[in-house]
Write a structure and sequence with these properties.
Number of helices: 0
Structural class: mainly beta
Order of helices and strands: EEEEEEEEEEE
Largest sheet: 7 strands, mixed
Number of strands: 11
Distance between the termini: 40 Å
């Protein structure tokens, strides 16, 4: 059973930086597409960034140039470096693992990111 555990959220002032990490266990990490999603109060969950098993990435337009997703297959982790944070980045951030083999999705418990103005 895949388990995802996020860490690194918190409170930061606008313009600041945070780094989120997600540790994957229970399966072969390297075969999953890993992603970060976020959900703000009253809004739908949205994709922030995604990285394939071979390192291909894509980002939401709202975070391009500010956020960077990376993965370490040796450590079973995926990270999201968030720079130049804005109040509108405030949300609960969720780690996601997507299996292309089974089309299953797995989610972490979420970590709160709050950006004050």
């Amino acid at each position: 059973q895949v388990q995802l555990v996020e860490s690194g959220g918190g409170l930061v002032q606008a313009g600041g930086s945070l780094r989120l990490s997600c540790t994957h266990s229970g399966s072969i990490f390297s075969i999953y597409t890993m992603g970060w999603y976020r959900q703000a109060p009253g809004k739908q969950r949205e994709l922030v960034a995604r990285i394939t098993s071979v390192g291909g990435t894509n980002y939401a337009d709202s975070v391009k140039g500010r956020f960077t997703i990376s993965r370490d297959n040796a450590k079973n982790t995926v990270s999201l470096q968030m720079n130049s944070l804005k109040p509108e980045d405030t949300a609960v951030y969720y780690c996601n693992a997507h299996s292309l083999l089974t089309n299953n999705d797995y989610w972490g418990q979420g970590t709160q990111v709050t950006v004050s103005s």
